[in-house]
Please model this.
Amino acid sequence: MADYSFKADGRISDWERDKLRNFCATLEGDIVSLAREFGLKVLVEDLLPYERGYLQNAPSYGSPSGWVVKLNQQDRAEVQNFTVAHELGHFVLHKAHLAGRDIFDGRINRDSQSATDPFIYLEPSDQIMESEANQFATALLMPANQFRPAFSRLAGDQSALAKLFFVTEKAVKRRVAELALG
Model:
């Protein structure tokens, strides 16, 4: 699995790339503040148990872009952190797919029979967009130039890395695999 690069992605404008680069330069960044810089408003609400979050076209909420990120209030802060980054990834990478939609989830049709993933992807492109948003979020929250030395310094301790980067251990495991560190 190759490491995702903001620099190489032609869908990202120069001003967006600059904001992303500045965020990745330090571990002090707040993902909600970054989302606001992109014109998104972030709301924490009572969602269905299997919903992490989604983008909603809701100009009445007063966000500059007209879009809001809705997060599940039942999720741990680390999960919400990744969800904001994931939804920001959709907003930045999948602009063309947002046009004419009220809600952008990527996983549209719920399948209540599936215990592991309560959604069915309607189109192969939906799976691709979800994967791209995950790669975006992973690269944003755990930049390679920060993650590699931390991995080495912490001797690969995934729990410590999760705390340092304020993500779940599952996200750390994914990043370790992407960077071929494990």
